[in-house]
Amino acid sequence: MKKIEKYIPELLFTASFFLLWWYLQATQEFTFYNREQEQLFLFDWSAIMDRYSVIGGLSLLVAQFFVQFFSLPLVGSLITAVFCSASAYLLWRTLKGFGIPWWTYPLLVMPALLQAHALSDRYWYYDGLTAFFFAVLFLWMYQAWLGHMKAGIRVTAGIFITFVGYFLIGPAIFVFSSGICVLDLVNRADKPCLQFFSVAAMPASAAFAIQAGIIENLQRAVLPDFYFEELIAPSLLIRLAWLSVPLAMVLGALLRRCRFKGAVSLGLLCVLAIGTACLALCLWKSSDNKTYVSLRLQHDVVTGDWDDILECREAVKGNNLLLMNYVNLALSHKHLLLDEMFRYRQGSPMALCVGGEGSELIHEIIVLQASIFYWLGDVGGAQNKAFDGFCGSKYGNPSMLQMLVKTNLIYGEHEVAEKYLDMLGKTFGYRRWAEEHRRFLHDDDAIRADSELGRKRSCLPDDDAFTNGDAVYSNILQVLGANPREEAARDYAIAYLLLLRSPELFDAFIQSFPLKEIFGDIPELAQQAVIVFHEKDLDYCRSLGVSDDVISKYKDFKLAFQKARAAQKSPQVLKGRYGSTYWYHYIFSQNQSS
User: What is the torsion angle, in degrees rounded to the nearest 10, for the CA atoms of residue 86, residue 293, residue 300 and residue 29?
Assistant: First the structure.
């Protein structure tokens, strides 16, 4: 039995690793994908020295080195599970020396679980996790090499490691300094109270950093706020998570006298394991599902997985305008926007592209707008948003840098495009893409012949024109003025006018861009709009390309509507047959909004 117990911690470590891997994959798959999009790790010595020569530079370097691989399926959850389970195992090895029983192992997993959960907050930096791991690693090294030495050596080493560790990993060194205090007290080491000088070394280091102007305030200097987005305060749970390590160590020390054998030990292990599982479930339930859905849709846009967007229940069944931007973009990419848009809750023109005051400060909206503008052929608007999206991200955004490459190639700005390609060429995930696009440098013929870049170049206006920020419709008119056959721009223009419910603007558009002459036919939703705006002049409707079949359908709808209104029935009786028509949307959505 003793031989079996000897290997139980290793078995528990393996089990906790696979369980954490599954848990993280189930709860944070798209969070990890998003984190890869929030940085650009360059294999360039000068760039590495410049970025990581800061307080917490070691934890930041390790974090960003691994995060660059998160674009690969399963890798983000795998690497994070390794860090978390290794932290729990190192805590176990640290406490093993003073006789902690093996069945307390799940107790030591809880601090790592709290760190893993903190990552579900998109504003918590990944270097917060790597800093925690290094702090636990330093704690284990201290116990293994210095734990049994004299007080003077222990205290001197503790102060030194705390001071150096603060500049290597940041305020997370508190986990180390508080941990060695607990170790000396539990081990009844010589003069354990002197170890409080190690704890004091952390605020002393923080005071130096503040005085030197390296860190701006006390909160960021000593609290987990250091690893959180500036100007935003982390939750109380994140702020208290570090305290779970010394608390777990104290509880483990109190339980070391509880010696049980056989089934009792196994039962206690199961109780603690169930407690840890319940904690994981509570943390899962407390996560922000709306933010996670948004991260999923952002990933789908980057990877071009339009089917997954249309399968996202939260997006297609809700009435969130921002999420509808993703749905409509997916419909447009699948050439279904003017066939199926009214199968979803559109609301207003902002369902096509969210904007307005303050939107230029929200990174998610900027990146989404860049993707929408580029798809529509608004190259200037896409370039403007891509630049803001790249520079607005603290450590760069690779997909926005790719868009800057493409837009500059379209404009013929080859030197600028080459500069961006050089940056992408120094990355892991985008090196091949950069090499493939180098063939377009200084070769306008190759750009014009390319199915994507050549098509977007044909959408450039003949004369220099200003991009009107979030004025999507006016920008689309510029695109159609340069290339009236740009289908995506046409569909968005018609969809915008349908949601705007403006007969005057719709008629002006039809007169400026006669759809039947340009495309050979008129989308049925546009025909439905013509009838709504000119139902008293069906001959005029026919002259614009409205078919007799659509006119017949409208008469059937109007008759059904009159019967339902006379019977005082709910509009829902018409939704099954007519809910995807513009007629239904125009009448009932307008009434509901008023």
Answer: 10
Burial 348-387 (b: 16+ CB within 10 A, else e): ebbbbbbbeeebbeebbbbbbbbbbbbbbbbbbbbbbbbb
**pLDDT value of residue 3:** 58
Q: What pLDDT, on a 0 to 100 scale, did the predictor assign at position 591?
A: 43
Nearest 5°: CA angle at 292, between 286 and 295?
160
What gap in Å lies between CA 207 and CA 390, rounded to an integer? 33
Cβ proximity of 205 and 162 under 8 Å: yes
Task: Write down the residue that tokens 């997006």 correspond to.
Answer: 315
Cβ-Cβ contacts under 8 Å for 163 (sequence gap 6 or more) = 201, 204, 205
* Calpha distance 121→28 (Å, rounded): 10
Give the phi and the psi of residue 228 in degrees, each rounded to 5. -120, 155
Those residues with Cβ within 8 angstroms of residue 533's Cβ, 6 or more apart along the chain or in another chain: 503, 506, 507
Residue with tokens 């305008």: 321
Q: Alpha-carbon distance 542 to 537, whole Å?
A: 9
Q: Which residues of the chain have pLDDT under 50?
A: 1, 591-594
- Condensed to tens digits (0 to 9), the pLDDT of residues 356-402 reads 766 677 889 999 999 999 999 999 999 999 999 999 888 999 999 99
* 43-55 pLDDT tens trace: 999 999 999 999 9
Cα-trace Rg, the chain: 30
DSSP string, 284-351: HHTS-HHHHHHHHHHHHHHHT-HHHHHH-HHHHHS--HHHHHHHHHHHHHTT-HHHHGGGS---SGGG
C-alpha separations of 330 from 222, 256, 287, 340 in Å: 45, 58, 26, 11
Kindly report the CA angle at 347 between 363 and 574, in degrees rounded to 5? 150
Give me the amino acid identity at 560: A
Which pTM value belongs to this model? 0.90
Helix (H, G, I), strand (E, B) or coil at 395: strand
Which has the closest alpha carbon to 302: 96, 16, 17, 38? Answer: 38
Q: Which of 132, 219, 145, 230 is nearest to 183 (CA)?
A: 145
Q: Is 246 helix (H, G, I), strand (E, B) or coil?
A: helix
> How many helices and strands, by DSSP H and E, does the chain display?
35, 0
CA distances (Å), origin 438, targets 42, 162, 230, 420, 521: 18, 48, 37, 11, 40
Query: Quick check: 245 and 197 in contact, CB under 8 A?
Result: no
Give the three-class secondary structure for 210.
helix
Phi, psi for 395 (deg, rounded to 5): -120, 20
